[in-house]
Amino acid sequence: MSIDINLLKQLRETTFAPLKDCKDALIEANGDLQQAQEILKEK
Predict the structure, then answer these.
(1) Which key words are in the record (predicted)?
(2) Which of 19, 27, 33, 41 is deepest in the core (most CB within 10 A)?
């Protein structure tokens, strides 16, 4: 699955999480930004 680079940047800017974690969260969330943020909060 390819990740939208703009979503990746936005997630990184809002969570300050490492790039790899942001990418993994977006993949797990199927590109859903809000769900990816929740995944990162749980970690």
Answers:
(1) Cytoplasm, Elongation factor, Protein biosynthesis
(2) 33
Measured in residues, the chain has a length of 43
CATH number of the domain encompassing residue 25: 1.10.8.10
Owning domain of residue 15: 5-42
How many domains is the chain built from? 1
- Amino acid code (one letter) for 19: L
CA distances from 14 to 1, 34, 41 (A): 22, 11, 11
Across 16-30, average pLDDT: 97
What residues contact 19, with CB distance under 8 A and at least 6 apart? 8, 12
E-strand stretches of 1-43: none
